[in-house]
Amino acid sequence: MSGAVGKVVKPQLRGLLQKNIKRNIIVAGTVAIAAALVQKVFVNDERKRVYAEFYKNYDIEKSFHQIRNKGLFDSCEPDN
């Protein structure tokens, strides 16, 4: 019966905090890099694409005349 009982492993008493801090810094760095990549791919690149599409079709002269004809500019009289 005494042969079935295994040897009790001693708990780690020294260096436990340093080990946990090292692991937490590595995990935090990995998560931060992953979050930055996700932000770039799914937010920034999509926003750049939408802005590029908007300005490809944007006519500033047409927009200016619409705003001027609504009477929103103080320095320009409407065409009406």
Automatic annotation (TrEMBL):
Keywords recorded for this protein, A-Z: Membrane, Mitochondrion, Mitochondrion inner membrane, Transmembrane, Transmembrane helix
Pathway the protein acts in: Energy metabolism; oxidative phosphorylation
Subcellular location: Mitochondrion inner membrane
Keyword Mitochondrion: yes
Main location per the UniProt record: mitochondrion
Matches recorded under Pfam families: COX6C
Topology of this chain in the membrane: Single-pass membrane protein
GO cellular component: mitochondrial inner membrane
Family affiliation: Belongs to the cytochrome c oxidase subunit 6c family.
PANTHER family in the record: CYTOCHROME C OXIDASE SUBUNIT 6C
Protein name in UniProt: Mitochondrial cytochrome c oxidase subunit VIc/VIIs domain-containing protein
Origin species: Phaedon cochleariae
